[in-house]
Amino acid sequence: MVTVRAPATSANLGSGFDVFGAALSRPADVVTVERADRTTIEVTGVGAQYIPEDPEGNTVGAVVEALDAPAHIHIDKGVRPASGLGSSAASAAGAAVALNRLYDRGYSREELVPIAAEGEAVVSGVAHSDNVAPSLLGGFTVTTTDGTHSVDARVPLVVCLPDVAVSTRDARRVVPETASMDDLVETVGNAATLAVGMCRSDPTLVGAGMSDPIVTPERARLITGYDAVHDAALAAGATGVTVSGAGPAVVAACREGSRQAIAAAMLDAFAEADIDARAYQTRIGRGATVLEE
Ligand SMILES: Nc1ncnc2c1ncn2[C@@H]1O[C@H](COP(=O)(O)OP(=O)(O)O)[C@@H](O)[C@H]1O
Ligand SMILES: N[C@@H](CCOP(=O)(O)O)C(=O)O
């Protein structure tokens, strides 16, 4: 038996659509696997009632296939599905690490990235790696078709999760197919600024690099109260604010000591829009960890 804790993640970070991701110190899924002749999946925890236990529909099913590693799998969800916090990816990353150990497959964490990403294709139609990479490797990650680079950045964050669901599959439909050269130049500048900020663990640069004129404005329209929450977080001291993943969670980069005030301001702004929400005072954290084997 192997048990793995796999963290939630925040993908895109505004300027890095389908490329940037960050592991969050909390929340997380806990995945336990035991050898079996046939794969069975049991899901408990937050939002378990919305998650298929059929291996064909669950992200961990694709990981079982890719590793040829049938197992009884228990997923204890700490990351709510359809959150923008890499819920589907956390389970896939946890299962990839656990099954790799259980069957002694010998893959490195980097090699597990495309394997865990197969699970994302099951739910969103695209095997995007920007959630599974940070859940596997920890820190801030940059994933391209050539592979993944990770930086052990230390930046405090607040993620505020409204009590509404946005599926990644639906939110990918609003992504523009083209962009102007001006918008691309602005995005590249912001992405580069954010990456330098991560290398320096500098929340000011990270926040400055979070804005994006192409994808985020379209995604923000799907989140009731987004503009007010964005402005409230900045007024409370956030260095940058954007949609987390495909939403509806909103992520704010923070300086040390400012997270409590920022979390309160974001919750108040959602409440003003009649939306219940919860806030996680979190930070960029470590990747999947083996708890027991
Ligand atoms: N192990 C899993 N954990 C979470 N969601 C899963 C899992 N397997 C399949 N799903 C499905 O994936 C969808 C949520 O994934 P997604 O839309 O990408 O949101 P998130 O941003 O939370 O990952 C839901 O329809 C859910 O039923
Ligand atoms: N790059 C993807 C990231 C989706 O993240 P999730 O946490 O919402 O699953 C996208 O923006 O579609």
Automatic annotation (TrEMBL):
GO terms for cellular component: cytoplasm. Keywords: Amino-acid biosynthesis, ATP-binding, Cytoplasm, Kinase, Nucleotide-binding, Threonine biosynthesis, Transferase. Its EC number is 2.7.1.39. It is found in: Cytoplasm. InterPro entries: GHMP_kinase_C_dom, GHMP_kinase_C_sf, GHMP_kinase_N_dom, Homoserine_kinase, Ribosomal_Su5_D2-typ_SF, Ribsml_uS5_D2-typ_fold_subgr. Residues 60-139 form the GHMP kinase N-terminal domain. One of its GO terms (molecular function) is homoserine kinase activity. Transmembrane segments: none annotated. One of its GO terms (biological process) is threonine biosynthetic process. Pathway: Amino-acid biosynthesis; L-threonine biosynthesis; L-threonine from L-aspartate: step 4/5. ATP binds at residues 80-90. Belongs to the GHMP kinase family. Homoserine kinase subfamily. Catalyzes the ATP-dependent phosphorylation of L-homoserine to L-homoserine phosphate. This is Homoserine kinase. It comes from Halorubrum aquaticum. The lineage of its organism: Archaea, Methanobacteriati, Methanobacteriota, Stenosarchaea group, Halobacteria.
